[in-house]
Design goal:
This protein is an alpha/beta fold and 264 residues long. It is built from 10 helices and 7 strands. A 7-stranded parallel beta sheet has the order 3-2-1-4-5-6-7, with helices on both faces. Bound molecules: NADP nicotinamide-adenine-dinucleotide phosphate. NADP nicotinamide-adenine-dinucleotide phosphate is lined by residues 12-18, 36-38, 56-59, 80-83, 103, 130, 132, 175, 177-178, 182-184, 262.
Length: 264
């Protein structure tokens, strides 16, 4: 798909990766509909990119259909919003679990459902899910987050085949640790020196390339992390052992502490 003149709805546009994705899509000539809860942040980004800001709380199930109706015809959905949902399961209330599932998994599924018919009727479209390497490897202190991100992967793989005959492409992006902006950066956790990071712009480039080339899956992480995620898919017990020895627990607990304010 050529993005010029197409309308793209980006969820989580007020966040670190959302900003980079919105700017990259705008540079390609897309018309943007930007959504999140913090409308003052969205307004500034909308002014910068020539887009439209629509406030929406993805925890509010009744707000999803009105969001789609207000957005109007959309050619590209980038389901990027997420609750970091970091921490050990004992630290979550049942309401916290529901919130993470709603924002990270249910809302992307419902938005895809509500938008795919219109995309197909208008001759095609693209649905992009922002997952995480946590959607390929479950790690200590990230069970709930991983459940939502694994869920996105399975949904996207099936959806891609369902929608292929109707001309709607489906892509999933799997970022590792992203520096400079976003939920990992904001948490202030330090990684061991051998763990590499990528930038928000790398994720944005992967989103653009996924849309333009209808790519199924793209990892955005240095080779070492991508290799680790592949090992975790093939030999999860081995990967868990290695992570334990490398001190994954400390990074996970620092991240959970730094992301407490984003659980709501
Ligand atoms: N940063 C990383 O290292 C990294 C790594 C792997 C994957 N990812 C994924 O990348 C995506 C973007 O994350 P980020 O790093 O940009 O995080 P972020 O800066 O914390 O942004 C999260 C976005 O989600 C929105 N959001 C959260 N709860 C919401 C709700 N109830 N209703 C509507 N919007 C809500 C936030 O907007 P409001 O608060 O304004 O509502 C914000 O725009 C996420 O899917 C994340 O899982 C990030």
């Amino acid at each position: 798909m050529n993005l010029g003149g197409r309308t793209a709805l980006v969820t989580g546009a007020s966040g670190g990766l959302g900003h980079a994705i919105a700017r990259a899509l705008a540079q390609r000539g897309a018309r943007l509909v930007l959504t999140a809860r913090r409308v003052e942040v969205l307004d500034a980004l909308a002014a910068e990119t020539g887009g439209r800001a629509l406030a929406c709380d993805l925890n509010d199930r009744a707000a999803l259909l009105p969001l789609v109706e207000e957005a109007g015809p959309v050619d590209v959905l980038v389901a990027n919003a997420a609750n970091p949902a970091s921490g050990r399961i004992e630290s979550f209330t049942v309401e916290d679990i529901d919130r993470a599932l709603d924002v990270n998994l249910r809302a992307p599924m419902v938005l895809a459902r509500l938008m795919c018919d219109g995309m197909a009727e208008r001759g095609g479209g693209q649905i992009v899910f922002i997952s995480s390497l946590s959607g390929k490897a479950g790690t200590v202190g990230a069970s709930l987050y991983a459940a939502t991100k694994f869920g996105l992967r399975g949904f996207a793989q099936g959806l891609r085949e369902d929608l292929r005959p109707r001309g709607v492409g489906v892509s999933t992006i799997f970022p590792g640790f992203i520096r400079d902006a976003g939920m990992f950066h904001d948490a202030g956790a330090k990684l061991p020196g051998y763990v590499g990071t990528k930038q928000p712009e790398d994720v944005a480039d992967a989103v653009v390339s996924a849309i333009e080339n209808n790519r199924a899956e793209t990892d955005v992480a240095p080779i070492g992390l991508r290799f680790g995620a592949t090992v975790a898919m093939l030999a999860p017990e081995l990967a868990a052992n290695v992570q334990r020895r490398l001190g994954a627990d400390k990074v996970a607990s620092d991240m959970a502490a730094g992301q407490q304010d984003k659980r709501r």
